[in-house]
Amino acid sequence: MTRQNAVLAGLIGAGIQASRTPAMHEQEGDAQGLRYLYRLIDLDQLKLDSDALPELLLAAERMNFTGLNITFPCKQAIIPLLDELSPEARGIGAVNTVVLKDGKRVGHNTDCLGFAEGFRRGLPDVARDRVVQMGAGGAGAAVAHALLSEGVRHLSIFDVDAGRAESLAFNLNQHFGERRAVAGQDLPTALNAADGLVNTTPMGMAKLPGTPVPAALLRAQMWVAEIVYFPLETELLRNARALGCRTLDGGNMAVFQAVKAFGLFSGVAADAQRMLAHFQRMNG
After folding, report:
1. How high is the pLDDT of residue 73?
2. Inter-CA distances, 196 with 3, 35, 133, 201, 210, Å
3. Which residues form the Shikimate dehydrogenase substrate binding N-terminal domain (predicted)?
């Protein structure tokens, strides 16, 4: 991919004012000598919902945006509006990065690689026989693919929409083999047998406080991973750490998905360690 002289990127999502993504991209752009602008397109502030995606994509194209990141609640709703999907995005069924180039909209998924990299670094040697995942939305689909790729043998997926959990489990089994994933039925029983727990729901965000799993169901022997990164210590992680669980916060996924998206937008490889250090300074 050729280097862009200037990059104009944005993030479409709901309730994203606290996002660290613009600062991560712009700071790395500065370090690389690029003119790099990154804008928030917050559906809540604009009083819009995902029905506005066609209009927002068209506006971005007309204003010569280089690309867009896509977050909750648009990672699946965006797909019918795109011209092409990367193999990862097609397999996962969710898009978090759209490159706008030569009149085409190409969807990518950097969440899967982002979570996998953070998991390898933060929980490298944990047991992976049975894992419970909360959430089966766009981020959940990416994380589930990452978990099974990283050696989780059996994944139980819970979602407020049981049909969505069943659909994701079906998709995963097509890719990874029969019975690797199931839609969970009984959360206490599943957690009692689990090596680890991953939250991929927005529950725990500053704008959606709370925990997806009652503290009473956590056990000291399990590891707990989170994808919410604002705040870095969610109620779920606070409860888990109080018990002595090994934990992984959402910061690594936030950084490593941004590293990959930066490369897609700019044509230049990002310095992952520099972006990680910048993120840690912002959250210090």
Report:
1. 94
2. 41, 42, 9, 16, 20
3. 11-98
The amino acid that residue 137 corresponds to is: G
Residue closest to 40 by CA, chosen among 68, 76, 82, 72: 68
pLDDT greater than 70 at residue 103: yes
Which residues participate in the annotated binding site for shikimate? 19-21, 71, 96, 111, 229, 257
Residues annotated within the binding site are 19-21, 71, 96, 111, 135-139, 227, 229, 250, 257
Strand 97-101 relative to strand 104-108, pairing: antiparallel
Least confident among 14-18, 134-138, 156-160? 14-18
Radius of gyration over every alpha carbon of the chain, rounded to an integer in angstroms: 18
Pairing of strands 196-199, 6-13: unpaired
Tell how strand 84-85 and strand 196-199 pair up.
Answer: unpaired
* Low-confidence winner among 124-133, 142-151, 204-213 (lowest mean pLDDT): 204-213
Cis? peptide before 231, omega within 30° of 0: yes
Binding residues for NADP(+): 135-139, 227, 250
- Among candidate residues 47, 75, 104, 260, the one labeled active-site is 75
Q: pTM of the full predicted structure? A: 0.95
Residue ranges and CATH numbers for the domains of the chain are 6-110+254-282 (3.40.50.10860), 112-252 (3.40.50.720)
**75 has catalytic annotation:** yes
Return the pLDDT at 1: 53
Query: How many C-beta atoms lie closer than 10 Å to residue 208's C-beta?
Result: 12
